[in-house]
Specification:
With about 350 residues, this protein is an alpha/beta fold. It contains eleven helices and 15 strands. The strands form four sheets. A seven-stranded mixed beta sheet has the order 2-10-9-8-5-3-4. It has a four-stranded antiparallel beta sheet with strand order 11-12-15-14, covered by helices on one side. Strands 1-13 form a two-stranded parallel sheet. Helix 4 links the parallel strand 3 and strand 4 (about 105-110). Helix 1 packs across helix 8. The radius of gyration is 20 Å and the shape is globular.
């Protein structure tokens, strides 16, 4: 069974070998304050910066999930309010989390085929927040937009980017934002349970100035621990070990990005000319590279998913408002090319 579910998604086939090695090497019971673990963290951070083109002066934290990142950012970097641009369910949920802690936070929605307007960006927001790749509706905000938004920020605003379903899959120009975060169960091809947050020196200086220490996962506390390559909590040592193995074995992000882009282009070209299922996002400038959304009548969507599963192909359900009449196809690095060849052959044979 190949799974195209956009999260938790297909894991690398090599994970079976990595898990055995983790057991044999004693990582499942390794002390997280010991030198062995801190050495692992030091190596993972170095490999992330090399393989993902992360600036050397950016700081990397390990959390439990991207959802936890929403809360931590509200706690430690939002004294007053944040402002959110969103087109789908996950961007909207981020706003809801922020408002629960900082009620003055506001947002602006936009359509799946649109780029959000930058004319009304509040100049007094602590954070301006975007979802770079909206998993729920297969949209994407590209580098040019992120740069234009960064240039529109108020003098004391930071730009925060949720890259949950693109981090590790596409080449992100991280110098164009202050905060990036995601999880490993999508483009890193690993089991769920580990979040990654990447902060610029400007963001580090800001949370140290704010000095919020009321929570176990406050950024000041996490930063002080990470100076010694440790965490504030007992971390997911297994996932960190698995991440280290994936980073060692994978190509640099530039190569991974081009491969996913080529594969996405072929998929969009096919479905742009299909007669029954068509892309949910019609504007090529806002289409995601890593999640392809298809739309059709609800009865057809159910039939496609059922027949695909019979052929060993698990397609992702629609999400939120798009759940009844859409399905999603993950285009993540761990899914082999053979799976996509089988998928296209299935559609050509069953739904031409």
């Amino acid at each position: 069974m190949y799974t195209f579910n956009p999260g938790p998604s297909e894991v690398y086939a090599e994970v079976r070998t990595y898990l055995t090695a983790a057991f044999d090497e004693g990582w499942l019971s390794a002390p997280h304050r010991g030198e062995r673990f801190t050495g692992l963290v030091r190596q993972v951070i170095a490999d992330m910066k090399t393989k993902l083109n992360i600036p050397q002066d950016y700081t990397i934290f390990f959390l439990n999930s991207a959802t936890e990142c929403w809360e931590v950012l509200a706690q430690s970097l939002t004294p007053t309010k944040s402002f959110h641009l969103y087109s789908g369910a996950f961007g909207e949920k981020w706003l809801e989390y922020a408002k629960a802690l900082r009620p003055a936070s506001t947002g602006q929605s936009f359509g799946v085929d649109e780029l959000p307007s930058l004319d009304k960006i509040p100049q007094d927001a602590d954070l301006v927040c975007i979802t770079q790749n909206e998993t729920s509706n297969a949209t994407q905000l590209r580098d040019g937009f992120v740069l234009n938004l960064y240039n529109k920020l108020g003098p004391n605003s930071l730009l925060a980017v949720d890259a949950t379903s693109s981090l590790g899959g596409i080449q992100l120009k991280m110098i164009k934002a202050d905060i990036w975060f995601g999880s490993v169960q999508k483009c890193f091809g690993l089991p769920a349970g580990l979040g990654l947050m990447i902060l610029s020196p400007r963001a580090v200086a800001r949370f140290r100035q704010i000095n919020e220490r009321a929570h176990y996962n406050s950024l000041v506390s996490q930063y002080e621990k990470m100076l010694n390559y440790q965490t504030t909590h007992t971390p997911n040592v297994l996932d960190i070990y698995l991440l280290s193995r994936v980073l060692q074995d994978r190509q640099p992000i530039k190569t991974v990005h081009q491969h996913l882009l080529d594969r996405a282009t072929k998929l969009y070209d096919y479905f742009d000319n299909a007669t029954q299922l068509t892309p949910l996002v019609t504007n090529p400038e806002t289409r995601s590279t890593t999640v392809i959304g298809l739309q059709g009548p609800p009865a057809l969507i159910d039939e496609v998913k059922r027949r695909a599963k019979e052929q060993g192909l698990q397609l992702g359900n629609g999400y939120g408002n798009w759940k009844p009449n859409t399905l999603r196809i993950a285009n993540f690095p761990a899914i082999p090319d053979a799976a996509y060849e089988q998928l296209v052959q299935f559609f050509a044979r069953e739904f031409a």
